[in-house]
Amino acid sequence: DPTILWFRRDLRLSDQAALIAAAGEGSVVPVYILDDETPKHRAMGAASRWWLHHSLKALDASLREKGSRLILRRGKSDEQLSDIAKECGAERVHALRHYEPWWRNAERAVAKRIDLVLHDGNYLAPPGSITTGTGGQYKIYTPFWRALNGHMPPPDPHRAPAKIDPPARWPKSDTLNDWDLLPTKPNWAKGFDPWTPGEEGAHKQLSRFKRHADDYAETRNLPSEDGSSRLSPHLHFGEVSPAQVWHAVAEEGGSVGTFLGELGWRDYAQNIILQYPDYASKNARDAFDEMPWRSSKVDLRAWQQGRTGYPIVDAGMRQLWATGWMHNRVRMIAASFLIKHLLIDWREGERWFWDCLVDADYGNNAVNWQWTAGTGVDSNMFVRIMAPLTQSPKFDAAGYIRQWVPELAKLDDAAIHDPEDAGCRPRDYPAKIIGHRAARERALAAYRHTK
Ligand code: FAD
């Protein structure tokens, strides 16, 4: 009898423990289920769906090269898997373990219907396995990373099997194009062009990054330079495993510690959502439940559309819309701006990122939003109010602003970070939505309500 291989955010054939286990038992039925019912309002956002479409296409092509194919189904994971098992005579499912609360629910539901074997491999260490001296879970990144790093390097990655045996009869499959994962508007085709979803695209991106990984610690904070790896959507969809990334980068030698530490943040975030499953919707510090957030639709839209009058913020928000990605330093500035300058609940920003990012990740997104807001389990940073107009020249963002805010492209380096103050704001660029000092005072006054 064949074994089912259930793909989710692990769309790769190499270093895929579930595939190795399934192939070791004989013929394999590889399956992807578009399950919008189990996650409910956490169903994938628009940019993620674009990525998924292309990644599934690539995965199917790679499977065909090995004598197999990808079966596509839509609906509740447990119902679909048990139907598929009946259609092809399978009695077991292999899958990599996932940590989003809805995936953990789905795993429990599946296990009630069929033998489900879960494997590790989407994280440097299985989330939950890195414990404190007294056996507890870490809540703070730095000690977590120290402990995780002590278990590194991760195991050597496995190769993909040379051949994957097909079952005697295939279950029925949907057609990818019928899922309508690609947007009708906006037309993202151009901005999204540089991305190549899929395992091959992930490895190309990894080799490109390897060559300059040594400069990462210096260049990663400069939005005008291409200093970071841009592996986030590939890692989110599991097109490359973190162990593969670790070994490829560590091989280069040099100072790659900073980069590996960022990879550690990804593991950390999963450990947090394992402890706090509703981290994307609930303040970890409940004093913030008393925060008098503003509910200005107009201000929220100005932020979403990149029309706040703060060039660095606007450049970031427009890069996000056009490409599905935003530079990390700018994510911090733009998120802080929404929360503190506009005094809008961080959960509004989290939702917008969820819909717009190709790397939208339940754990990473929620952990970073709560960290920026100061509402999280780690540090309370609300009163550390970032000054976007200082950050912008400090991280040399002039080139970045020119690229993403064409109205400002003609301004020189001295004026571009704050054209209003320099007296040369073009007429088609908005005035500042609120002054920095006024925003700061308003935020600190609101914060006093949480005490
Ligand atoms: P690199 O700097 O090359 O880092 C390598 C990898 O490490 C990344 O691909 C990512 O997997 C991981 N990583 C790096 N920084 C972080 C971090 N701070 N937290 C968790 N993992 C990290 N990242 C997401 O993957 N998905 C999200 O939904 C997401 N939302 C964010 C929201 C906010 C408000 C902020 C401030 C950050 C968010 N990040 C998120 C983290 C970070 O911005 C991105 O992972 C990074 O910009 C991706 O680019 P890169 O692959 O070039 O990163």
UniProtKB/TrEMBL annotation:
Keyword Transmembrane: no
Co-factor(s): FAD; (6R)-5,10-methylene-5,6,7,8-tetrahydrofolate
Keywords, in A-Z order: Chromophore, FAD, Flavoprotein, Lyase
One MF annotation (Gene Ontology) recorded for this entry: deoxyribodipyrimidine photo-lyase activity
Domain called Photolyase/cryptochrome alpha/beta: residue spans: 1-124
Documented EC number(s): 4.1.99.3
Lyase as UniProt keyword: yes
Origin: domain of life: Bacteria
Stored PANTHER family: CRYPTOCHROME, CRYPTOCHROME CIRCADIAN CLOCK 5 ISOFORM X1
Family: Belongs to the DNA photolyase family.
Descriptive protein name: Deoxyribodipyrimidine photo-lyase
